[in-house]
Design a protein that fits this description.
mainly alpha
Length: 137
């Protein structure tokens, strides 16, 4: 199961990074430009740290699924990811909206993005991490 967990982490990280690019680099680029006063200039962004944070987030996400979800399947992975995404999205989107002067549309976008990313990552974990086959002698 360790090899499958590592594979799930690698695949989820790659897909997560691609979704980050689509969501934040393409879909929300205009919103970020319109609120540029809220963000660090691009040359001051801590992108290597952001990649590390994403990797650690995925590592924890997959470890929770692998260690705490009893039924390993695509369906259980999607359910886990959706529920995790709901919690993360509420915190990321609307939690940030409570204390940061971001537009409510950005709060909704962060919520939806987190929900999609976590659901997809849960599907990846559920599809890759399977219980070890029972050996019958």
């Amino acid at each position: 199961m360790i090899k499958r967990s590592i594979l799930a982490i690698v695949v989820a990280f790659i897909v997560w990074s691609a979704l980050d690019f689509v969501i934040h680099g393409l879909m929300l680029a205009g919103t970020y430009e319109a609120t540029a006063e809220l963000w660090r200039p691009m040359e001051e962004m801590k992108m290597p740290l952001m990649r590390l944070v994403s990797l650690l987030y995925i590592l924890c996400f997959v470890a929770i699924y692998g260690g705490l979800i009893a039924e390993k399947s695509l369906e259980s992975g999607l359910k886990y990811g959706f529920l995790f995404g709901l919690a993360a999205g509420i915190s990321m989107g609307f939690g940030s909206y409570c204390y940061t002067p971001i537009p409510v549309s950005l709060a909704f976008s962060w919520f939806a993005g987190s929900l999609v990313q976590c659901t997809v990552a849960g599907g990846i974990a559920g599809a890759i991490i399977k219980p070890a086959p029972k050996v019958v002698f």
